[in-house]
Amino acid sequence: MVSTVVITGANRGVGLALAEHYHKEGWQVVGVCRQTSHELQQVANKVVDNIDVTLAADIATLANALADDTIDLLINNAGLLQDDVLGSVDVDSLRLQMEVNAFAPLRVTEALLPLMVQGSKIANITSRMGSIADNDSGGRYGYRASKAALNAFGKSLAIDLKGQGIAVAQLHPGYVQTRMVNFGGLISPQQAAAGIVSRIEALTLENSGSFWHSNGEELPW
Fold first, then answer.
1. Under 8 Å between Cβ of 147 and 94
2. Which residues is 168 bridged to in the sheet?
3. Is the dihedral of CA 171, 193, 200, 166 positive or negative?
4. CB neighbours (10 Å) of residue 89?
5. Whose CA is closest to 145, among 209, 101, 86?
6. pTM for the structure as a whole
7. pLDDT (tens digit, 9 = 90+) per residue, 83-123?
8. Of residues 151, 76, 142, the one with CA closest to residue 112
9. DSSP string covering the chain, please?
C-alpha cells in the first residue's frame, strides 16, 4: 500500500526538496502551499494551493480536500522569518511569526488528525533558534519565540498522541540555502531534506517529542 505524505510550504526550498525525495521513494505526495510552482507540480500527486495556514477557513478547505486520504506523515514545514531589532520591534511582526510558525502547525495538525492512524508520524520543521539554552546571539525575537512555542506544542502533541500510536518530532533542518535567508546558508535544501528524512525514519514512540538537528544531534530546549 502506498504511503501518503502531506507537506506544507511545499512549493520551494526544503519543502520542495522533501516532496522530491518522497516522490522518488514512491510515496503519494500532497503539496500544500499558498502558490504552487512548476517544480512542485512535477512531483506531487496532489497540490492544494491558495492555502494560508493562518486562516481557519483555508485549513478547513485543506482538511476537506484530503478527506478521503489516510495521512502516514505530516510535515509542518511552512515558516516565516523576519528580523526584529531591539529598539524598533514591530509587534505585528511578532504576532505574524507566531501565527505562521507556531499556531498554524498546531491548527493544521488538529484539523488533519482524523485522517491519521496508528503508526502515522508528524514532523514539525522548527529551528535551533527556538532553543533557549542555545541562544548565544540574541535578536530575532519573533522567530525565536515562535519556534520555541512550536517546540512546546510539539512536545505536548507527542504526549497527547502517544496513546494513538502517533509519533511527533521537532526537527531543525540546518542553515539551509533558501530564500528565507537570502540563499546564504551552509547546506542545500536537498542535504537538509536527506537529514530530515533520516530523523523521521528513526522516529518512534519511544523517542517521540524530541528536538533534533537534521544531522542527528539532539538539541537542548
1. no
2. 122
3. positive
4. 11
5. 101
6. 0.95
7. 888 999 999 999 999 999 999 999 999 999 999 999 999 99
8. 76
9. ---EEEEESTTSHHHHHHHHHHHHTTPEEEEE-SS--HHHHHH-SEEE-S--TT-HHHHHHHHHHTTT--EEEEEE---------TTS--HHHHHHHHIIIIIHHHHHHHHHGGGEEEEEEEEEE--GGG-STT--S---HHHHHHHHHHHHHHHHHHHHHGGGT-EEEEEE--SB-SGGGTT--SB-HHHHHHHHHHHHHH--TTTTT-EEETTSPBPP-
Condensed to tens digits (0 to 9), the pLDDT of residues 22-77 reads 999 999 999 999 999 999 999 999 999 999 999 999 999 999 999 999 999 999 99
How far apart CA 3 and CA 155 sit, in angstroms, is: 25
CB within 8 A of 3, min separation 6: which ones? 27, 28, 72, 73
Between helix 104-112 and helix 141-161 the angle, nearest 10°, is 20
Place of cell 482538511: 63
